[in-house]
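Q: Start with the shorter request: fold the first protein.
A: Done. Sequence, then structure:
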Amino acid sequence: MTTPRFQFRARRARAGVLVLLMGFVALQGLHSTEFPPSMDYETAREAPQHSNETPMWTNAPGFSRDVFTFVRVRYKAKEKNLTNFFWVGQKRFQIDFPDSDLNLSYRLQQMTAIKVNPEGRVLRITDPELFRYPWIYMVEPGDLELTAAEVPILRRYLLNGGFLMCDDFWGQAEWDNLAEEMKKVFPDREFIELPMEHPIFHCVFDLNVEKNKLQCPNVRYGEDSQNDPLHRTYEPDLARRTWDRPDAVDMHVRALHDANGRIMVLATHNTDNGDGWEREGEYQYYFREFSEKRAFPLGINIIFYAMTH
C-alpha cells in the first residue's frame, strides 16, 4: 500500500504545472542516515526505501527512452571524512538514496510536462551507458576522488552536452575538495557564482528570494528550526539554524561553463536538497518550509533549465 504524502501546493510556475491533491502522514522521531543493504543497485526503484514509499507511474508505450532519468553517480570517496559528523566510507554516494531520486522524479513529472523515468539509474562515470543520459547527480562530493580513468570521460561527457549537479556538501574544506577534483577535468575553468537574476532560478518556479532563503538543512536541523519563526540561517542557538557548521552559513550556487556559456557543472553548496527530496513525507513542518518552498522548486528548476539549454 502506498503511504499518503503531503500535498504539494502549486505556486507561481511555468511549463504546465499540475496541482497535487493528496493527504499527509506525520511520522514520529527523526530518522538517522540509512543505507540500502547493497551498493550495487542499477536503479533506484529496486532499492528498498527507508522513508515513505514513492508512488509508481508509467509513460506511454514506445517512449521508454524519450524520458528524463535521474542518474546518480557512484564514485570513489577519499574517506577523509573532511568535516562530516559520521563515517560513511565508500557508501557516501548513496546518501539519501533511493528516496531522493524517486521523490524528485515523481514531483518533476507531476509539476511539469516533462516525461520522467520512474526507475532512475545508478552509474559509474566509466559506464558506457553514461552518454545516454544528459543529466547526472553527485551527492556529498566534498569527499569525491575522480580516478585517472574517469577524468577524460567526464570531460568528454560535459563538453558533449552533459550536465552534472553536485549537492549536499558543506563548509570550506568540502568545497575545496570539489574544486580540486574539477580542476582535473577542466584545469582552465573556474566556478562562477550565479546571481539570483539568472534564469535557472525563474524558469519554472519564480524564486524571487535571497539565495539563503533557498538553503535547505538536513531534516534534523530543519525540524529544530521551527522554534525560530524567522528560520534564520545564522543563529548560534543550534535549535534555530539551517546550516550544518559555522563555515557553511551562506548558501552558494556556482557553475562551470563551456566556451559558449552553457552550464556544464552546477554545485549547490551549503545546502541539502537531497534531504529535502528524500524526507518530504516524514514531517509536515519540514515539508512545508523546506521541501515545498526550497528543495523541490530549485531541483525542478535546475533540471528544466538543464534539459532546455
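Q: Next, the second protein, separately.
A: Sequence, then structure:
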Amino acid sequence: MKPWSFTSGLFFIILFYILSLMTGTLNISTYCIKVLITVLITVLITACTGSGMMDEVGEERDLGQETELKELIEISFDSMQISKTSKMLDEKLYWQLIARSIKASTSLEDQEKWLISELRKQPTEKIIGFKLRTHKLLIDSYNSDLWCAGYIMNGGCSDDCFEYFRCWIISRGREIFNNSKTNPDYLINEVNAGDVISGIKVYEFEGLLNVAGTAFSQKTGKDIYDYIDYAGLDASEDVYGQLKIRWSEEDPESMRKLCPVLYEKFFKSTP
C-alpha cells in the first residue's frame, strides 16, 4: 500500500470526527476539535512530503507549495473561539424547541433531558441565546396574578418557587404562556402536567433554568455565565423587586377574586 493511500484514509476518518464534533453529533469539547485539526494538518503535510508526491511536471513540491497547502487546509483556531454575547435566541425558534420538547416527552424530567440534548447540537451563541430568552420570558411573566396562581396551585409559593412555577408555565408552550399572563385561570388546562413529588403534584420546573448551562458545559467544557455579555443586556427590563402584590394569603377572598377557577379547584382554607 502506498503511503498516500494510508494517510488519505486516516485523513477522512479524522475529518469525519471533526464534522461530527462541530455539528454536535459527538459530545467532545472545542479543545479536542483543535487537537484533531492539528493532527489532520500534520498528517496531510507529512503525506505530501514524505510519500514523494510529484507535481504535474514530475518535480517534488517545494517548501513554498507545502506552506500554501498548509495554509489552505488549516482552520483558523480563532474562529472556533467562543465569543461573549447578549443576543437572545429568536423567540419563534425558542417556542419551536419548547413545542418539540413537549411532543418528545412524557414528563418534565424527559423534557429537560431532551432540551439538553437538542441544545448541545446548536452553536454556542444559540445555547446562550436560549438562556437569555428564558430569562426574558421569566421577566415578562413576573406579575402578581400569576404569583397568586402559583400559590393556589402549589399550596404556597416562595420567591424561588414562583420562579420555578414560571419556568413550568414556559415549558407548557407559547399559547399557555401568553394566555396565562393575563388570565391565570387559563392554567386550569394544564393541571395534569405537573410533577408528582412525594405523592403531591407540584407545578414547578427548576430544570428549565439549567438546560442551557448544562448543554453549554457538555459541548465546550466551560461555564455559560462566563460568555454572557452582561454589558449588552437591557438593565431596564430587570423588574424584580418592583412588583405590587394584589393579594394576600391571609385574605383568601383576595385570591379567589384574581383566580376564581383555580381557587375552586385547588384552594382549601384552614379551619
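Q: Describe the second briefly.
A: The chain has two domains: 3-80, 91-266. Residues 91-266 form one domain.
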